[in-house]
Write a structure and sequence with these properties.
This protein is α+β, with helices and mostly antiparallel strands. The chain has six helices and ten strands, in the order αββββαββαααβββαβ.
Length: about 210
């Protein structure tokens, strides 16, 4: 016999409130346990495509989010940045196995303004700031020793002064047009809720919501 899932009290029409509640749950569960899958609740798989439609995916860390979208940071010379500049459409997936939940987010993804990138870069540990200068992300390198030598060079270059943000490093914001919330159920009868907005309704905070078959 298949039992009913425990109902959750959730807002009916606001996917951002859904995201906040589920993210906070993953964050609190991760802090209260040693579950490796929840060590970084802000880890998400980001999928992009090149101009010719070739897909690629990698794990990124969500650093900021609000109703404008979901922000992560990277080297603008990296493969993901180049693909987003060519084709500014992306998908982001959060999966928290211990909670049996996932969130899918899809929409246009574009660079944030320089002030936002500057502010976040200034908040990073100094070692990470230097690392942004040392690594030409996604490009070939001869050896790890060469990478360490590059780090030592820039560490010496900025000794005794603040590390400025490189022009080739900054943020992207994925502005959602579709968000889907998935929760595992018995007999693979999962719960799925889809929220869809177009350019016109997104500014008004209005979303179309519907339940999907698993």
């Amino acid at each position: 016999m298949v039992t009913k899932n425990n109902n959750e009290t959730l807002p009916l029409d606001d996917p951002f409130e859904w995201f906040e509640r589920w993210f906070d749950l993953a964050d609190s569960e991760g802090a209260a346990s040693n579950a490796h899958a929840l060590k970084y609740p802000n880890a998400a798989t980001l999928s992009t495509t090149s101009a010719d439609g070739s897909p690629s995916s990698r794990v990124i860390l969500l650093k900021q989010w609000d109703r404008r979208g979901f922000v992560f940071y990277t080297n603008y010379r990296s493969k993901k940045a180049q693909e987003l500049d060519e084709n500014p459409r992306a998908a982001m997936l959060f999966y928290w196995r211990p909670l049996d939940r996932q969130i899918r987010i899809e929409g246009p993804c574009r660079r944030v303004d320089e002030e936002t990138s500057d502010a976040y870069f200034a908040s990073r540990p100094r070692a990470s700031q230097i690392g942004a200068w040392a690594s030409n992300q996604s490009s070939p390198i001869d050896s790890r020793d060469a990478l360490l030598e590059s780090y030592e060079h820039w560490e010496s270059e900025f000794e005794g002064r603040e590390v400025p943000r490189p022009d080739h490093w900054g943020g992207f914001r994925l502005s959602p047009r579709r968000m889907e919330f998935w929760r595992a159920g018995e007999a693979r009868l999962h719960d799925r809720w889809e929220f869809v907005a177009d350019d016109k309704t997104l500014e008004d905070g209005e979303w179309r919501r519907r339940r999907l078959n698993p």
